[in-house]
Amino acid sequence: MLVGVAGGIAAYKACHLIRDFTEHGDDVRVIPTEAALNFVGAATFEALSGHPVSTTVFDAVDEVQHVALGQQADAVVIAPATADLIARLACGRADDLLSASVLVATCPVIIAPAMHTEMWLNPATQDNVATLRRRGVIVMEPAHGRLTGVDSGAGRLPEPGQIAEFARTIIAGHRVDHDWHGLKVVISAGGTQENLDPVRYLGNRSSGRQGFALGEVAAQRGADVTIVAGNTDALPIPSGASVVRVTSTRDMHKAMNAEAADADIVIMAAAVSDYRPASVADSKMKKGAADEDLAHLELVENPDILKGLVERRENGDLKRDAIIVGFAAETGDAHTTVLEYAQQKLLKKGCDVLMANEVGEGKVFGQPTSAGWILRKGADPVEVEPGSKQVVAAQILNVVNEILER
Ligand code: C5P
């Protein structure tokens, strides 16, 4: 395994990451950039990895090191990746040993960015990240929190333990020639919208990020991934996944039933409108006393797609051993905790796995991060520490994989 380290203050955290990998038995070669050595000395990386360290293509030329390291790697994990390194990789530069090795590597490349929020959000960086993702590079979402100075925001390096766990999920998928090769995974993502009239709708704040992250990780494991996406146009389509776009709950219901028929894993990550207007006006509804439609909406209940999928499995309309995963967005109240509500929901819906999120006050919905519990029939809940939706996706799919392996 290659661990790349770019020149940012978070470079010191790469030491914990390298330690984590070596303790799990990985043979790690560290390639820092020249700038990284301003933060951590080569001696530290050499001692931690047990291998010599260089930054340039002109060392060990007789061993053709600039090609050999990338060719031999089973994974490249770069943490931290700075805006400058991301720009160089997006351009396909090979002006130091790390960028040259990435250009040679055909194994999974996982990048954990760390930089100030402004640099991360700059369109130049976002375009470079999109370019890398389109080429199949796995770019982790940076964490939110304290940055180098007094400022805080998006751009913090995810915790080394999270990067290592996430990388292991991706690598495990690739090592055995994609462990989910031949499996069909169908995921609903985003929120449904219910039309009131030609210009208005009832909807929710779901961004679709969790569903798309699940699609990204499942595709990295080699699965055939279909995302049934409600209103998520701004999100990039994960490499290797296809998307069916829907608007209303009834559209999503139809698409999920059709796509799930031959699926091995079905995940309802979408936020589905439970009700829709009883009728949709042909022309824009007007406010005012003469027309009270807007003040008193009559709603009718939508189908419960998740519950319906569990019933379809029982009736033989889905594969009998299909694994069905649901989500629960809960706030809890004075009498019942989020976890208790989620446990009730697992039983009510009849799915095999349920990811329970505590929502509200800027938590989870529309945010890049998530946390909560993964519940499974007949097993203790697993607490999920706050992390990016990709990291959470990897943990959910690891639980699904345990069920697959039984
Ligand atoms: O009942 P509640 O909306 O809290 O359940 C959440 C789970 O059920 C999610 O997995 C969501 O995608 C799914 N759901 C559904 N159809 C609905 C409402 C929710 O499939 N009409």
UniProtKB/TrEMBL annotation:
Location of the region described as Phosphopantothenoylcysteine decarboxylase in the Swiss-Prot/TrEMBL record: 1-184
Membrane-spanning residues: none
Domain Flavoprotein: 2-165
InterPro entries according to UniProt: CoaB-like_sf (IPR035929), CoaBC (IPR005252), DNA/pantothenate-metab_flavo_C (IPR007085), Flavin_trans-like (IPR036551), Flavoprotein (IPR003382)
Cited function: Catalyzes two sequential steps in the biosynthesis of coenzyme A. In the first step cysteine is conjugated to 4'-phosphopantothenate to form 4-phosphopantothenoylcysteine. In the second step the latter compound is decarboxylated to form 4'-phosphopantotheine. Catalyzes two steps in the biosynthesis of coenzyme A. In the first step cysteine is conjugated to 4'-phosphopantothenate to form 4-phosphopantothenoylcysteine, in the latter compound is decarboxylated to form 4'-phosphopantotheine.
Annotated family: In the C-terminal section; belongs to the PPC synthetase family.
Enzyme Commission (EC) number: 4.1.1.36, 6.3.2.5
Cofactors that this protein relies on: Mg(2+); FMN
Name of the protein described by the UniProt record: Coenzyme A biosynthesis bifunctional protein CoaBC
Organism the protein comes from: Corynebacterium hesseae
Pathway in which the depicted protein is active: Cofactor biosynthesis; coenzyme A biosynthesis; CoA from (R)-pantothenate: step 2/5; Cofactor biosynthesis; coenzyme A biosynthesis; CoA from (R)-pantothenate: step 3/5
Alphabetized UniProt keyword annotations: Decarboxylase, Flavoprotein, FMN, Ligase, Lyase, Magnesium, Metal-binding, Multifunctional enzyme
Region (Phosphopantothenate--cysteine ligase): 185-406
Catalysed reaction, written as an equation: N-[(R)-4-phosphopantothenoyl]-L-cysteine + H(+) = (R)-4'-phosphopantetheine + CO2; (R)-4'-phosphopantothenate + L-cysteine + CTP = N-[(R)-4-phosphopantothenoyl]-L-cysteine + CMP + diphosphate + H(+)
Pfam name, any one: DFP
Molecular function GO terms recorded: phosphopantothenate--cysteine ligase activity; phosphopantothenoylcysteine decarboxylase activity
Classification via HAMAP family: CoaBC (MF_02225)
Gene name as annotated: coaBC
Binding site for CTP: 274, 284, 303-306, 327, 345, 349
Entry's cofactor comment: Binds 1 FMN per subunit.
Domain DNA/pantothenate metabolism flavoprotein C-terminal, first and last residues per copy: 181-402
